[in-house]
């Protein structure tokens, strides 16, 4: 059963320096912007972030990057924030680049008790360097390891008080996967309702995956990221 | 986007006959949707939507892989990123139309990294190459400074060892058959001599070369 927090710093109370943190979202879309903002105000550093991107320049995870709180990032497309390339060149951050499907599957595997998997993606490319290649039925595959984290911060649309979650349009992306793959899962949502108000048929993330809930105070709108009144 | 880009996109659109599921990359491929009226051509976007259509009211949480606002058509479905790439790697996407930096004479492409610059983004490019049943690439034939993008060998890192199936440029259309480029069509007002002059890669002139394609 999930604990509902009113304050972001309470929700983040067990986040510590040096931890690995999964952060949902495809850029800012479906990113837990209130929890990320909380991390920018918290005294932590040396974080390993698992996320498709590192936000955009000065937005979302881009703020944590500027604060030099990120030691390493694991993702698929850091190009969308120019400052990541700069930080990488200066040696301020370590990057592990994975094809987007491999990143998603590694998180899924991590949450499902699977240590790794063989994929066709990346065979014969620069991203295959250092990875075991194996022929299965005559087809070459690469071994990719699963990913897990100490904490996942994710964005969903609605929760019930138990922690069951539903999502909104393309803001779903990596969020339901990350909900399964961390020791502590914190979800921020638009609304928290009573059990029974969400149809069991529509629940995407069952409540056993979710530890903490917070109502979103920073949201993405057509005008950009704004504070919700 | 220029008239040249629109012409390439329109030619690529002619390859799509429903029912089929199509993934469009960023850039010229995005324009292809503008030329499709067949309502059983279903567009897939890897960030988690099957049934992409033109944008109506802008919703910041309803976007394509280029983070541009899109619409959802009747019968659309949303899903998570692992399921989306399962569709791609698992061979459930019929056609991927992708942009490209270079194509070699075996039809292999480079579209994700430039040497000398930081290699910090790959996105879904490699997954689409290994998984889509058919891959069509759309590109201008030459770079801004006039160098051929169709090369003997890619000088940029390749995206996959798999060859694409078709290359559509502003000068010509090539099929890739048994890892060889076969010139299939010339674009309007383009001569074979011009294609030869502006192509570094070796190619074979197809037996049924159509010098006057429908446009």
Brief characterization of the structure:
The complex is a heterodimer of chains A (about 230) and B (about 220). In chain A, about 20% of the residues lie in helices and about 30% in strands. With about 230 residues, chain A is of the alpha/beta class.
Describe the structure.
- The complex is a heterodimer of chains A (229) and B (215).
- Helices cover 18% and strands 31% of the residues of chain A.
- Chain A is built from 6 helices and 16 strands.
- Chain A has helices at residues 8-11, 33-40, 61-66, 82-89, 100-111, 175-178; strands at residues 3-5, 20-23, 47-50, 70-75, 94-97, 116-119, 133-136, 139-145, 149-155, 158-160, 165-166, 182-189, 191-193, 212-215, 218-221, 224-227.
- In chain A, the strands form 4 sheets. Chain A has an 8-stranded parallel beta sheet. In chain A, strands 6-8-7 form a 3-stranded antiparallel beta sheet. A 3-stranded mixed beta sheet of chain A has the order 11-10-13, with no helix packed on it.
- Chain A is globular.
- Chain B has 215 residues and is an alpha/beta fold.
- Chain B has one domain: Glutaconate Coenzyme A-transferase.
- Helix content of chain B is 18%, strand content 29%.
- Chain B is built from 5 helices and 13 strands.
- Chain B has helices spanning 3-13, 28-32, 81-89, 125-131, 192-197; strands at 20-24, 41-45, 49-53, 71-78, 95-98, 102-104, 109-110, 134-138, 150-151, 166-168, 172-177, 180-186, 204-210.
- In chain B, helix 3 packs across helix 4 (125-131).
- Chains A and B meet through helix 4, helix 5 and helix 6 of A and helix 3 and helix 4 of B.
């Amino acid at each position: 059963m999930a604990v509902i927090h009113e304050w972001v710093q309470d929700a983040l109370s067990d986040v510590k320096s040096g931890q690995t943190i999964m952060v949902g979202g495809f850029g800012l879309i479906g990113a837990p912007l209130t929890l990320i903002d909380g991390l920018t105000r918290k005294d932590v550093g040396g974080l390993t972030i698992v996320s498709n991107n590192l936000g955009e320049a000065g937005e979302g995870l881009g703020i944590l990057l500027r604060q030099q709180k990120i030691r390493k990032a694991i993702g698929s497309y850091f190009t969308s924030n120019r400052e990541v390339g700069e930080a990488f060149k200066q040696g301020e951050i370590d990057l592990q680049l994975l094809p987007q499907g491999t990143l998603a599957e590694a998180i899924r595997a991590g949450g499902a008790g699977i240590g790794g998997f063989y994929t066709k993606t990346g065979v014969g490319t620069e991203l295959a360097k250092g990875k075991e290649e194996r022929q299965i039925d005559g087809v070459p595959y690469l071994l990719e390891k699963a990913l897990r984290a100490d904490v996942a911060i994710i964005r969903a649309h609605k929760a019930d008080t138990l922690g069951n979650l539903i999502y909104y349009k393309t803001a779903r992306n990596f969020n339901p996967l990350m909900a399964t793959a961390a020791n502590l899962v914190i979800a921020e949502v638009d609304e928290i309702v009573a059990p029974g108000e969400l149809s069991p048929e529509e629940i995407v993330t069952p409540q056993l995956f979710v530890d903490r809930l917070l109502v979103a105070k920073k949201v993405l709108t057509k005008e950009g990221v704004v504070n919700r009144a | 986007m220029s008239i040249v880009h629109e012409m390439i996109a329109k030619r690529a659109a002619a390859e799509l006959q429903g029912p089929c599921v199509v993934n469009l990359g960023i850039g010229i491929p995005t324009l292809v949707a503008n030329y499709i009226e067949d309502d059983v051509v279903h567009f897939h976007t890897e960030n988690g939507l099957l049934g992409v259509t033109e944008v109506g009211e802008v919703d910041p949480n309803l976007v394509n892989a280029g983070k541009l606002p899109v619409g959802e058509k009747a019968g659309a479905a949303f899903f998570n990123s692992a399921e989306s790439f399962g569709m791609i790697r698992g061979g459930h996407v019929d056609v991927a139309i992708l942009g490209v930096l270079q194509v070699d004479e075996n039809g292999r492409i480079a579209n994700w990294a430039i040497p000398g610059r930081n290699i910090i983004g790959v996105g879904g490019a490699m997954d689409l190459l290994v998984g889509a049943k058919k891959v069509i690439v759309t590109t201008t034939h030459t770079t801004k400074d006039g160098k051929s993008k169709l090369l003997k060998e890619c000088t940029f890192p390749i995206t996959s060892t798999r060859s694409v199936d078709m290359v559509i440029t502003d000068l010509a259309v090539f099929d890739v058959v048994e890892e060889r480029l076969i010139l299939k069509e010339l674009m309007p007002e383009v001569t074979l001599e011009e294609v030869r002059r502006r192509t570094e890669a070796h190619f074979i002139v197809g037996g049924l070369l159509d010098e006057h394609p429908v446009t």
